[in-house]
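Pilot study result, target chain (539 residues):
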Amino acid sequence: MRKRTNADVLIHRDEVSNFKSLQEDRNQRNNQSPSSKKVLLICLVFRMTNSLFVQTYFNPDEHWQALEVAHRITFGYGHLTWEWSRGIRSYVHPMLFAVLYKVLAFLHIDTPFFMIRAPRLFQSILSSSGDLYLFKLSNVLYGGHVAQWALFAQLTNWFMFYCITRTLSNSLETVLTVISLYYWPCLRVRSSDGLPVSRPWALVAAAIACAIRPTSAIIWVYVGLMELFVSRDRLKFVFLEVVPIGFIVLGMTFLLDRLMYGSWVLVPLNFLKFNFLSSGGDYYGTHPWHWYFTQGFTVMIFTYLPFTVVGIIQSKNWKLSGLILWVLVLYSVLGHKEFRFVLPVLPIALVYAGYSLAMLSQRYSSSKRNQKTTNARTKSSWKIQSAVFFLLVTNVPMAIYMSMIHQRGSEDVMNYLAKEALNGDVKNILFLTPCHATPYYSTLHKNIPMRFLDCSPREVKGTPDESDNFMMDPIGFMSEFAKNWSQPSHIILFDNEEKQLKEFLFTHSFVEKKRFFHSHFKVDRDLQASVVLYALLNQ
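Predicted structure:
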């Protein structure tokens, strides 16, 4: 064996010194994360700006199951869809916006400007708290450096930008999910990190999420069983925490629904019967079992997908990655699938993307400290810069296009009519569109007669509803429909139906008043390029 020389000893000391310095640098970077107040302020400003960018129509529930119900509670008029007659919706979520509407009315600012923008601005405040807790969760799991990159992923992901400030119950469910996950002890990597752990707060947030959307229980069954498995005080967890908190939160929900419905209605039970036992959700379309894996969730996470996969492998945190898989698998069993159903696990996937980005940037930081590795430093710098550029150039244009351009006609036509109605120029509106294709009274904010084509589920499967009959034969349907109608002052329809009804509209003294761009490509029907507003001659 070769005898160690003084030069060898010096080289070894230098290597040890560099290693210690690198470790200290990593610890320092992890501890130097921004304060919660600073992060919340950044997220609040970002999400409020985000909400102003969102000007398109995504899903009917944003208006019809939240704002429309809240408008009816506050102002006494608004349409309740068939779900409310069957008792499968809770008033918990709409009540938040009813309070907002009460404030607008009290301040006498319930004008079209505020009625259109205030709900999404309010949701942006809730969403920013979800962003904050995502940062805090990432910080607890992996340190401040990863938390900053996770927040970057959360704020720049196109679907999160597109969806999280919308007034969907799924948006609030997502916020509550992230908050709850932060407090669960079983998800912590380090048991002695000295950070606050509070199962009661976790259970409160989880219970509220379930009250708003009963399907949220899919998430909490997984987390709850995991907590039960690792907990040393299982009896306390079940009988002194889960049962009392669940009873109080859900009991208050039942009382609210009793007050609003006028009778005892067990919404979770009715929801379970309709969506799981009778497959009622299939009425609105079905997808193949693999849809979330091959299209749904992959489109939502978009170009962050490879970074998420790498982050899962690098972190070796199988608890949270298992939760993502669990949710996707169980939702895949249901025939009716939608992007928004799995929104609550999207932030978790973005945490893993943040982890891989943090590791990539840390390699650059490590090589930067060692002045002898110029080539490695250049290569690491190029990698992290290319990754950030790639993510921004793919997500930002997508977010802006989907939020400001795609399917905006549905919103624009009602925003326009709200201003017209304020001047008394709108008397009666007929919607010849697929039902729930536009906002309704919550945007118009004027108690005038309105009529749309019914599409509530039929008792006998396969029986076409009123909307289906119109789409199959617009001319024949309208010829019969016009025999008994109260002639409207305005008619709203898409351009593809307009082509078939032009002569009918002309003979009934309707003229085109305004045309609104809607879409460049079709979604689930023929291309609906524009929304057309017709008005009675001299109206």
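One observation from the pilot: The first strand starts at residue 429 and ends at 432. A full batch analysis is planned for the follow-on phase.
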